[in-house]
Design goal:
With 277 residues, this protein is α/β, with parallel strands linked by helices. Helix content is 39%, strand content 9%. It folds into three domains: 149 residues, Rossmann fold, CATH 3.40.50; 38 residues, no CATH class; 71 residues, Serine Threonine Protein Phosphatase 5, Tetratricopeptide repeat. It has eight helices and nine strands. It has a six-stranded mixed beta sheet, sandwiched between helices. A hairpin with an 8-residue loop joins strand 8 and strand 9. It is globular and about 60 Å long.
């Protein structure tokens, strides 16, 4: 495999360039000099409120930096975090940073987000963190902006994180600057259960959207288990039926209606109920 072309000045400096560009385009942000850390520019105005930090392992910068702002994150870091995606090495390193911060007198908590529905290894670190982390950013950010206490924020976002589920699907691999693609996919393959660094399986793509929804339903039933797996599997299985006849826009609308109607019929829930989320 060849190394894909990238519009970067240099591989070693591309993360710093990206952060500098982000701050230059957003006057509400600032950089912590000497570190790959982005922060809100109005820190003085929000003094006394809970600060929300999120981030990933070194090498993923400027991940999460676009979620800094009023009602969202206070800052994005690669060492200490309040909101973490669930990867074993990251959890250990962030946990060490948290303990060091506590030793210096800071009242710090860590919320680990594990929303991956395709790769649950309960005897290890558990589910991995994917895009559900962004929803936790918003829930925690809104609470912090309203002046909620640290205990209240941790309690509510922890409860919200338990109800999250994400199923990744990829048609092509990615590559970091200066490196080859992280894996190979044939033209007739896709990957179900793709996360940031790992995946569940590669398989030929279904010939039609209806078959794809059915395949996703089977995977959710297999990997999620419990009532959540059945709920999402029921929705996708019912939604697949209208797409057997057509794949135009009205058919997709019918598919959504069919999925919701099935959950109402078998689950006894109405739109807006928490069990419909």
């Amino acid at each position: 495999m060849e190394v894909p072309k990238k519009l970067v000045n240099s591989v070693s400096g591309c993360a710093d360039d990206a952060l500098a560009g982000l701050v230059a385009c957003n006057p509400g942000l600032q950089l912590l000099q000497g570190h790959r850390v982005a922060l809100r520019a109005d820190l003085v105005a929000i003094r006394g409120r809970v600060a929300l930090l999120s981030g990933g392992g070194s090498g993923h910068e400027p991940a999460h930096a676009g979620y800094i702002g009023k009602g969202m994150l206070t800052g994005v870091v690669s060492i200490l975090a309040a909101i973490r995606a669930n990867y074993t090495g990251d959890r250990l390193n962030f946990g060490l940073a948290l303990e060091r911060a506590r030793a210096e007198g800071a009242d710090v908590r860590m919320v680990v987000v594990g929303d991956d529905s395709a790769f649950a290894t309960l005897k290890k670190a558990g589910r991995r963190g994917l895009c559900g982390t962004v929803l936790i950013h918003k829930v925690a950010g809104a609470l912090a902006e309203a002046g909620a206490s640290l205990d209240e924020i941790v309690e509510k976002v922890s409860a919200a994180a338990k109800g999250l589920g994400t199923l990744g699907l990829s048609l092509s691999p990615c590559s970091v600057p200066g490196s080859k693609p992280t894996f190979q996919l044939a033209d007739d393959e896709m990957e179900l259960g793709l996360a940031i660094q790992e995946w569940v399986r590669a398989r030929p793509p279904p010939a039609a959207p209806a078959q794809l929804l059915s395949a996703l339903a089977d995977l959710l039933l297999e990997k999620m288990g419990g009532s959540s797996g059945v709920l999402y599997g029921l929705f996708l299985t019912a939604a697949a039926r209208p797409l057997l006849r057509s794949t135009d826009l009205p058919a997709w609308a019918d598919a959504m209606d069919a999925g919701i109607e099935a959950m109402q019929r078998y689950g006894g829930a109405a739109p807006g109920d928490r069990t419909m989320g």
